[in-house]
Design a protein that fits this description.
Rossmann fold, 2 domains, seven-stranded parallel sheet, two-stranded antiparallel ribbon, alpha/beta, single chain
Length: 304
């Protein structure tokens, strides 16, 4: 098997996207602040850190209070699920090129957006978020804006305040929906006032406040597929040392690596530090590298 891992740079650099491409982390806060919602209403000290030190540093200043965090997570999910691919998007074009062999590829994304799902379903493919053979394997080890926990019929959880606890709610069924309208409807439903979509907080540690076990199991599955991959393709990913759940499985498995990134310095430094061999680096954005990516996958599948 081959695994392709997409990071924020992939969606940002994927071209054809409506209303525009999802922003990189450095620009994300300003986009969210313009919504005049939960992020806009943060205190000025936190907002200053978001703007001067980056999104992860800003999230570290947010009060550990469910009344603050759940609205932020909901707003982030609604925002990131609002982007949609156009026919010339790089995800669409890549999966079209690889359509005959997608059943031999594990797709992984660290992003919360739905561009990959849209690109696959537009080609008529089903999606298996658990990588158990029920469709095209798509793992999201940081969760997703469309992973919506479902309360049992007749049950409402509201009016609770959770402070200083790792996870607010655990064990609910999670439904993966398809559209931004479904995400927004769920987020606005008063029954879900004490919940938020199952996505890791965009902060060091990638804390998950709802249904953490789902993400833990996905990360375990991620480690398994990396260990059995002869080629791992990294598209638009920056090396972040504290994201050990992403990088350590690669360090341990030591597959051949194919890296697509116009600014790969941090990843190259990681490769040198870990003495990883069998590495190819293509200094291009995702939108410009479809041929390179297709060739690398086909070569690994059919000629090695």
């Amino acid at each position: 098997m081959i695994s392709i891992i997409f990071g924020a740079g992939a969606s940002y650099g994927s071209g054809g996207c409506s209303p525009r491409n999802p922003p990189l982390g450095n620009d994300l806060f300003s986009e969210l602040e313009e919504l005049k919602g939960a992020f806009y209403n943060l205190n000025n000290d936190s907002k200053r850190v978001f703007k001067t030190e980056g999104f992860e540093a800003g999230m570290a200043t947010v009060a550990d209070d469910s009344r603050v965090i759940n609205p932020l997570q909901k707003e982030l999910a609604c925002y990131l699920s609002s982007f949609s691919v156009k026919p010339d998007n790089a995800y669409v074009r890549l999966f079209n090129k690889l359509r005959s062999c997608l059943d031999r590829i594990n797709i992984v994304t660290l992003n919360y957006d739905l561009l990959i799902e849209q690109s696959l379903t537009n080609h008529g493919f089903g999606i298996d978020y658990n990588a158990n053979g029920g469709g095209i394997n798509l793992l999201k080890p940081h969760g997703s804006s469309n992973f919506l926990p479902q309360l049992p019929k007749g049950l409402t959880i509201s009016g609770n305040t959770m402070i200083g606890c790792g996870t607010y709610v655990e064990g609910l069924e999670t439904k993966a929906v398809s559209t931004v309208d479904e995400v927004m409807t769920w987020c606005k439903d008063p029954r879900n006032s004490d919940l938020s979509p199952v996505l890791a907080m965009y902060a060091e540690g990638k804390r998950v406040v709802v249904n953490r076990n789902l993400i833990t199991n996905t990360q375990k599955k991620y480690s398994e597929i990396i260990s059995s991959s002869k080629l791992v393709v990294l598209v638009g990913i920056k090396y972040i040392q504290h994201d050990k759940h992403i990088w350590e499985p690669i360090e341990n498995a030591r597959p051949n690596l194919f890296i697509v990134d116009p600014y790969p310095n941090s990843t190259i430094d990681w490769i040198k530090d870990k003495s990883i061999t069998g590495v190819t680096v293509v200094k291009k954005g995702f939108d410009e590298a479809i041929w390179d990516l297709t060739k690398s996958v086909h070569d690994a599948l059919y000629f090695t």
